[in-house]
Amino acid sequence: MQIIDGKLVAKTVREKLKVAIENSVARFGAPIGLAVIIAGDNPASKVYVKNKAKAAEELGIASYIYELPELTTQDGIFHLIDKLNADRAVNGILVQLPLPSHLDEKTILRRIDPAKDVDGFSPYQAGRLAIGEEGLVACTPAGVMELFKYYDINLRGANAVIVGRSNIVGKPMFHLLLQADATVTVCHTKTKDLASITSQADILIAAVGRANMITANMVKEGAVVIDVGINRTASGLVGDVDFESVAPKCSYITPVPGGVGPMTIAMLMSNTLKAYKEQNV
Question: Residue 198 belongs to what domain range?
Answer without folding.
Answer: 139-261
